[in-house]
Every structure is written in C-alpha cells, then in structure tokens.
Design a protein that fits this description.
Distance between the termini: 61 Å
Structural class: alpha+beta
Radius of gyration: 16 Å
Number of helices: 5
Mean pLDDT: 82
Length: 131
C-alpha cells in the first residue's frame, strides 16, 4: 500500500528545514476529543524531536499522532503529546516511561488532561500559594 510506504519512508523528512509529520487520517473527531489514549510528556530535552519521541513511544502500540511543541523560532518548548490507538497502550507508556531519563532529563509522562480538567483536579495555580 502506498500510504504505508510513505509513512515508513517519508515521515519526518525535512521540507524547508522543518520535519513533516505523516499520520493516518482520523475522520472521526470523537476519538480525538474523547481523550482516550492521549498522553502528555513534559521535561523533554530540547534535542528530542518528533521522530525521537515517536521512536521512544511506538514500542507500546500504534500511535495516531505524535508531536513535540515548538515556539515561533522552531525551538522545543520541552513538552509533547502522543495519541495512542488504545488506552492500554497509553497506560503501558505512562507506566514504563514516567520518571525515565531521556537524554539526561527525567521526564514526566501522564494522561493528557484538558485545562478544565486540570483546574478541577489541581485548582487554580494562584490558590495554591500559602505565603
């Protein structure tokens, strides 16, 4: 199949100095919006790019989407996201990689939470200060 070959050979190739990401099209937005299988990774070394993040997490299952966040100068912001096809794959990734050293930095890997979920769970950041 041509699409599979393109994913295997052309993914993360540079176009105008930026790596392109090829992923399977997800026509059903409910899977993406449900949050099932979505993982947040923080404290990433700036040398970790989309491909190395994908390579690190692909051992746990099929990845629907994988991305390291970048600023306007294309510098890593130190966090990224992986969206797995199944919740089981994301649970395994969280269990095995959370607290692991990647490029000499201890990374946090956890279930992705929307801003609203974080506020409900952790409270507003300003309310946590006690001094």
């Amino acid at each position: 199949m041509d699409a599979e070959r393109a994913l295997g050979t052309m993914n993360y190739e540079l176009i105008k100095g930026r790596p392109k990401r090829l992923m399977w099209a997800q026509r059903d937005p409910s899977l993406r919006k449900s949050g099932v299988g979505n993982v947040f990774i923080k404290n990433l070394d700036t040398s970790i790019d989309n491909k190395s993040l994908y390579d690190t997490f692909s051992v746990f299952g099929i990845i629907l989407s994988c991305k390291v966040a970048h600023d306007e100068r294309n510098q890593s912001k130190g966090y990224g996201f992986d969206h797995f096809e199944t919740q089981d794959a994301s649970d395994q990734a969280i269990q095995k990689v959370n607290g692991m050293m990647l490029n000499d930095k201890k990374v946090y890997v956890g279930r992705f939470m929307t801003r609203k979920e974080r506020m409900e769970t952790l409270g507003h950041p300003a309310t946590r200060f006690t001094n």
